[in-house]
Known about the structure:
Helix content of chain A is 0%, strand content 53%.
Amino acid sequence: AQKxxxxxxxxxxxxxxxxxxxxxxxxxxxxxYLFWYKQPPSGELVFLIRRNSFDEQNEISGxxxxxxxxxxxxxxxxxxxxxxxxxxxYFCALRGGTGTASKLTFGTxxxxxxTL
Amino acid sequence: GAVVSQHPSWVICKSxxxxxxxxxxxxxxxxxxxxxxxxxxxxxxxxxxxxxGSKATYEQGVEKDKFLINHASLTLSTLxxxxxxxxxxxxxxxxxxxxxxxxxxYNSPLHFGNGTRLTVT
Lengths: 116, 121
């Protein structure tokens, strides 16, 4: 069974603050893939990043960075110098295994509110 | 990049009627598409996996006779909510994985449509 936990339901920060969104996962698969998606108020899901289980390199993309710690089963997402446009719900997701039946399991999401 | 188009964006229908939602992959072929449902302020729950040319695979607890899925071509899957009731009001969102047929790459991300907000009155 797969499980993704996003313990932070809502976070509110002031613009330019840094913010970290936590994600903890559970899976029995040795090969798995982790994702982060952004869902702005308009509703569409925007893909942000993918990380596979055998690549623990952290990644930085502009103001976004991701910290994958296999030892703690965590895949945290940090936004540096947050902006109002970052306000959205962020979902962490996990797909375990490589079979055709492998499904994407979403966490419950973290609602980020960035204010001026 | 891969684009998934979903139509309509929103629909209001009367209780007892049926509603069809279309999901198209615009610039890639998708032998597999996924239908999710999202209640307000909740996560996405997978309803079913739509397979081109064969029957959809439904998740436990999802009524296959109520949520009819048809995946007749490599670029189109439809979800029909039959005899809709107010409790079916929700945000329905489809997704597809760009890649080579049904076998990957498995690490390729799902691309989501913009979703359909269904309100049943």
